[in-house]
Amino acid sequence: MKKSKAFWGFLVLALVIYAVVQGMISGGMLDLYYQNILIQMCINVMLAVSLHIVIGITGQFSIGHAGFMAVGAYVSAIVTMKLGLPLIVAILLGAVISALAGLLVGIPTLRLKGDYLAIATLGFAEIIRIIFLNVDYVGGAAGMVVMNMTTWTYAFVAVVITILVIANFTNSRHGRGCISIREDEIASDAMGINTTYYKVIAFTIGAFFAGVAGAIYSHNFFIIQPTTFNFLKSFDILIYVVLGGLGSLSGSVIAAIFLTVVSAYLSNFPETRMIIYSLVLIIVMLYRPTGLMGTKEITSLFKFGKKGGSKV
Amino acid sequence: MTEKKTLKRFASVFLTSSLIVGALAGCGSKEEGTSTDSGGSTSDDTSEVIKIGANLELSGAVASYGSSIGKGAELAVEEINAAGGIDGKKIELVKVDNKSENSEATNAAIKLATQDKVAAMIAPATSGNVIATAQIANQYKIPTVTASGTAPNVTENEDGSINDFVFRTCFIDPFQGVVAANFATEELKAKNVAIYADNSSDYAKGLAAAFKEQIEANGGTVVKEEAYVADDVDFKSTLTNIKSANPDFVFIPGYYEEVGLIVKQARELGIDVPLMGADGWDSPTLVELAGKDALNNTFITNHYSSQDPDETIQSFVDAFEAKFSEAPNAFHALGYDTVYYIVDAIKRAGSADGEAIQKALAETTDLSLITGTFSVDEKHNPVKSATVLEYVDGNQQFNSKVNP
Amino acid sequence: MEWLQQLVNGISLGSIYALIALGYTMVYGIIKLINFAHGDVFMLGAFIGFYAIARWDLGFFPALIIAMLLCAIIGVIIERVAYKRLRNATRIAALITAIGVSLLIEYTVIFFRGASPEAYPEVFANKSINILGANISSISIVILAVTVVLMILLHFIVHKTKIGKAMRAVSHDADAARLMGINVDNTISATFAIGSALAGAAGVIFGLYYTRIEPLMGVLPGLKAFVAAVLGGIGSIPGAMTGGLVLGVVETIVSALGYSLWRDAAAFVILILILILKPSGIFGKNTREKV
């Protein structure tokens, strides 16, 4: 009952946001510059939320998320540019192949724990990138030219779907299985939870939505190059999740939006942009190591007196 | 203890919230700025300044190219404004940094087109980043000229169509490759050549392909073909392979950051044959990286030479040295020329309207600039000569000029 | 002949990886932190050495020692300011902080001197010695000698001195070490100092050998050095040395076979194979998970 209320509440909120922004666009108040920032925001939110399910919910430390984004970007670009199929097919295919890649990477590596897992996922992401670098069919290092096909509507619908699916997954039996792994893997194993299964599921879903984000990215920026998807991109995504608060969906959404705005604003000061950015990172981590939201959700802030608001 | 903790928490909350407020305030002020901008831009033609955007690599991997072009452009704008501008209107150069990233290049082009409302743009230095801005230029009908984007597909799409609003000041890759190959066979009598190309840029790959085709047409053989990727530092193992193939000439298309090390390591391994490259080598840093001795017996094709005795070139070199106290390299010269190229078109168009400038750019004939006299062909490429230079004790020496 | 040359190339590259890997492995062994800023300390070392040689006209050895000293101080400052208060926080928070410190160092350097590369001056007359058809430059012999001396010194410090004993104790069990009266904070700082000094030395050697230094030069070697540390068994000092040399030689072999474009991939494939097949690395001890 409560769950469905939150579900409808979110949908209404999304519709309102969409209507307002769309109104502003057709009213000419948001030109392409701001639309582009909005699309970037959507892409970053998707990436953050898709990594949130791996790190925040399941507690598996992956720092190679840009690899899956690259798979989605390249596969979707091949589908539209080489095969001439429509964008929606490209996004879906990109996401599915990316999920397959997630499955392939996940099965061997998810036996590892902690830092070892982190460094293995980083290694896989770099291997994916180097493969694209060496395949001439997709332009090698010089990159692949892609038509601009996305609009803000595509990006926004994709974000809404991503958030809905991941929020529902978190509240399902599977989601609780994943959370139990985060809290104590050995204990949940002892309770009869198939930990490998849940870890791989979470990883695959995360890769799927990273693929969607990659597909939208490639169709928004005219050209994709392997260097775009290096490990610094993975770190960026990781930063959204950790800064927002590990385990908080709304936290990672807020952090992704916040950092996109900060980054766009700082582009007026190219020299000091990265210095300020890294200082924000260090200061937040030193004074609030659990991230901005901790494990709380934004909804729990508004439930005064009510109990059981938080998801975890 | 708890007091200290709350204090800390307060500090952190304060810091972050002030940052958020700062960022939002920044956005707010930016929006205000644009609204006044768009108010003024409707009367673009009658305004007192003509804005030229410069979407350049001012930071990131190829920052040195972007900032060189920016310096050259600055000098040109200064000269033109001192001479009275374009029909009394001053030029304003709006520089934006694209961090050497394609997505940032797109963002910067959108910003120049929608926020700054420029009349024309100087496109990024590297071909990939130019491509990332081409569709924006076409969409907003803003003529865009790249100073150094040499890949053929910058102006010509895969399907053979032309990017209407994209132009360039430099010659294209295949031309340089052909010049280098002819120089190798005719001047250096090379028969067995090796190619060691930067695999991370279309530029070097295009050069390597054109060079190979021409050298084989000239009767030479390619005994070894190897590749490296940008940011490598250790080339010895591949160079050892090249050495064992015994070439009498090595063609190394790439950028100076790696080429400097390649030349140095090649000489250390005892590869003493002539080495040759293209305009990507042109930087004072190359001499520092490779060392003067190692660079002897190496050649490059380039857009111009600051040692060229031509009078206009020498007066440019003097003016540049007076302003920046360094000798201008090819990127400086190309940035300088790009501004003159655009301004010439604006003058002939008689207005700052995008389509009129585009038409004038496409009709440019026999325009005399620092990097040569050229006309624009139907693919928006300038038809111009190349210069072959030789390194002697760390200095570039003018060898010959090759016409197309 | 050619293979001897390739082996020499590989060992020169590998000894630089090994020097950086030592710092990684020591820090990880003692506080279980992947110190991503380590690669940037390496970069700082290269620049300090550069300014010492080019601007203050010092010789190679004074420059090396200055770079090592300053890097040791920088390492301790980083540890005291950024990592110390996170000792009880989650590992991921510490990792993000390390990434933050790494970006801060890189872009502060860019802010002050720009992103353009710098060429290291020549301090030795570079002569090539021909041994059995392989060209060995005098620099690579110096590099190898310095690396070996530093490693012997490190081995001596860790195994024969009091602070080395304390380091081993803390990395084994920090709480027990504290109960035994070991000053854990000072020991951790000493570890950072030694690790950073080695990274600084690696920076100077790198600059001398490869000539080109730039503010982002630490990123990839840092990552590779971490791979080397994992390869050898993280936390193990002989492991880091072996891992570095193996990685350098493997990369050279991959290039020599004509697959130079896959060289970086080779490093990561090795990493993943090692992690899956023998996660404790070549020299690592098997640790059983505690419940």
UniProtKB/TrEMBL annotation, chain A:
Keywords: Cell membrane, Membrane, Transmembrane, Transmembrane helix
Single GO molecular function: branched-chain amino acid transmembrane transporter activity
Pfam families: BPD_transp_2
Main location as per UniProt: membrane
Entry keyword Transmembrane helix: yes
Topology relative to the membrane: Multi-pass membrane protein
Cell location: Cell membrane
Spans through the membrane: 87-107, 114-132, 152-170, 197-217, 237-262, 274-290
Gene Ontology CC annotations of this record: plasma membrane
Listed PANTHER family: HIGH-AFFINITY BRANCHED-CHAIN AMINO ACID TRANSPORT PROTEIN BRAE, HIGH-AFFINITY BRANCHED-CHAIN AMINO ACID TRANSPORT SYSTEM PERMEASE
The name this protein goes by in its record: Branched-chain amino acid ABC transporter permease
Source organism of the structure: Lysinibacillus antri
Automatic annotation (TrEMBL), chain B:
Protein name, as recorded: ABC transporter substrate-binding protein
TM regions (residue ranges): none
Presence of the UniProt keyword Translocase in the record: no
Domain of life: Bacteria
Signal sequence residues: 1-25
Pfam families membership: Peripla_BP_6 (PF13458)
Single Gene Ontology BP annotation: amino acid transport
Similarity annotation: Belongs to the leucine-binding protein family.
Native species: Lysinibacillus antri
CDD domains documented for this protein: PBP1_ABC_LivK_ligand_binding-like (cd06347)
Assigned keywords, A-Z: Amino-acid transport, Signal, Transport
Residue stretches making up the Leucine-binding protein domain: 50-394
UniProtKB/TrEMBL annotation, chain C:
Annotated InterPro entries: ABC_BtuC-like, ABC_transp_permease, BCAA_transport_permease
Transmembrane segments: 6-26, 33-54, 60-78, 90-112, 132-158, 188-210, 265-284
Compartments, as annotated in UniProt: Cell membrane
Keyword Ubl conjugation set for record: no
GO CC, one annotated term: plasma membrane
Organism whose genome encodes this protein: Lysinibacillus antri
Family: Belongs to the binding-protein-dependent transport system permease family. LivHM subfamily.
KW Transport (keyword) present: yes
Main location: membrane
Keywords carried by this UniProt record: Amino-acid transport, Cell inner membrane, Cell membrane, Membrane, Transmembrane, Transmembrane helix, Transport
The name this protein goes by in its record: Branched-chain amino acid ABC transporter permease
Lineage: Bacteria, Bacillati, Bacillota, Bacilli, Bacillales
Highest taxon in the source lineage: Bacteria
GO biological process, one term: L-alanine transport
A Pfam family per the record: BPD_transp_2
One Gene Ontology molecular-function label: L-phenylalanine transmembrane transporter activity
Membrane topology designation: Multi-pass membrane protein
Gene3D superfamilies: ABC transporter involved in vitamin B12 uptake, BtuC
